[in-house]
Write a structure and sequence with these properties.
- Its cofactor is FAD.
- The chain has 173 residues and is an all-alpha fold.
- The chain is 60% helix and 0% strand.
- The protein contains eleven helices and no strands.
- Helix 6 packs parallel to helix 9.
- The radius of gyration is 30 Å and the shape is extended.
- It starts with a helix and ends with a helix.
Length: 173
Amino acid sequence: MSRVHFLRLWCRLEPYRHIERSNYQCCRLLCDRSVQELIDSDTRSELTAIKKKPKRNPFVKNLFLGKFDTEYLAFPEVLNKEQLQNLEELLSPIEKFFNEVDSQEIDRSATIPEKTLTTLKELGLFGQQIPTEYGGLGLSATEYARFAEITALDGSIAVTLAAHQAIGLKVKI
């Protein structure tokens, strides 16, 4: 019997320790004598670590009680500092461009001006997820999502760019 199997069996038998001594000893006979010798202080600490899972109160129940656990809002850092700095350098001219775009004019005329499309092309926004060896920006999903936050400032441009990132892109590459 391996140590892992024994740990699983021990976890099943441990709750019965409060039962009358003879019954508990009968349960313990299920374990092999050679395996019982494995129980030392290290194994017991491993067992207690297995049993003691951090308890969290149910999220929705707490909402109804008026409590909000802010630990659920913790967001993992996906990018390292260098990647984050590179991303910010890429985003600054794009943010500047989108602050200058006349969204109302695009909506009134129902067309995106050629000058705007040319600028989008120069910024590399039509190839956001295309690998760099093919001339794209090679953005990860996290970086692409950050770009999408900015391009969403104008709905027409956002849809145009999203179509270039979604329709048939992965099949071609």
